[in-house]
Amino acid sequence: MAKIKRGDQIIVIAGKENGKQGVVLSVTGDRVKVEGLNMVKKHTKANQATGTTGGIIAQEAALHISNVAIFNATTQKADRIGYQDIAGVKTRVYKSNGESVATTK
Asked: pTM of the prediction?
């Protein structure tokens, strides 16, 4: 089960994008797409039926989930996620300070 969800602010901890931050666009299995990170060029063919033009477009490629960590805004560092039962509701909390995780959607 992935503890990182769509809309979370993350920081890359390994790879060519190390140290960069962004917002998670999607989580698929063990891969995440992050806004503006790991950009690749894709060659597209024109299609008259759908009205799309051909060319080279830049888009985000997926990163492995082990290469990213959630960003804790209060400590300004990467953090880990835990779960707590607060008032009968299962909520995600930061392991370092116990604060609840706020997502931006």
From this structure: 0.83
